[in-house]
Design goal:
Elements (H helix, E strand, L loop, with lengths): L1 H20 L11 H5 L7 E5 L5 H5 L8 E5 L16 H18 L5 E4 L3 H4 L8 E6 L5 H12 L2 E9 L7 H11 L4 E6 L3 H4 L1 E6 L2
Parallel strand pairs: 1-2, 1-4, 2-3, 4-5
Antiparallel strand pairs: 5-7, 6-7
Helix pairs in contact: 6-7
């Protein structure tokens, strides 16, 4: 009897460990969910640009119960503000492993589509006025943010949102402000000051 109980306990522990390994570790981003989730509705069509390890998508965007959510990231070493830009096979293998891990996290969800492409390439697969929201958290340079804003603006429905992270970063704030200057009368701008200047979310709503 003791042997049977011990064996059962080992199986239970092993099973529990496997289950917990199938979800990403919560790094505290749930605290940032309220503002973003207040903007999106159940059944929305959304996208995230810059998925990395899938934490924000899993703990925040998935909670909005989207009818479809596209996770767009090339998982290519040298992007997303890496300090070192030398794409050696060893360094690229880190990104490849992240991609495989994210695929595992979201494999049970039929409403999730993982797109392993650069955002500027993936945009061509979507029709205009398609998304209820696009969340931008990819490369944080001025040029990259400008490119994503310009590329995905026409893909947003009237009334929908482009939402982005880290508004206070050096490259992001001027890119957003320059975009707003190019689209007078077409959008509304909102800012969530969570975590001060560098951690805030920005929101651009398309109104026409």
């Amino acid at each position: 009897m003791k042997l049977i109980l011990s064996l059962s306990l080992v199986i239970l522990i092993a099973t529990s460990t496997y289950c917990f390994a199938d979800i990403p570790p919560d790094d505290g981003r749930v605290q940032r969910a309220a503002y973003v989730l207040s903007l999106i509705k159940q059944g929305d069509i959304g996208a995230e640009i810059g998925v990395c390890q899938g934490v924000f998508a899993y703990y925040v965007l998935l909670k909005g119960n989207p009818s479809k959510l596209y996770l767009i990231d090339p998982w290519e070493y040298g992007l997303q503000a890496d300090v070192e830009l030398d794409p050696t096979p060893e360094k690229q293998s880190i990104r490849d492993e992240q991609y495989r891990t994210v695929c595992g996290y979201f494999s049970p969800y039929k409403n999730i589509e993982i797109v392993r492409q650069k955002s500027e390439d993936a945009v061509n697969t979507f029709k205009n006025d398609y998304f209820d929201y696009v969340y931008i958290d990819g490369e944080h340079s001025y040029n990259a943010v400008t490119r994503d804003l310009d590329n995905y603006w026409s893909k947003i429905k009237v009334g929908g949102y482009i939402i982005g992270d880290d508004y206070g970063w050096t490259g992001i704030m001027p890119a957003v402000q320059d975009f707003l200057a190019r689209h007078p009368g077409e959008c509304l701008f909102f800012e969530d000051p969570y975590l001060g200047n560098t951690g805030g979310q920005f929101v651009i709503q398309r109104i026409k």
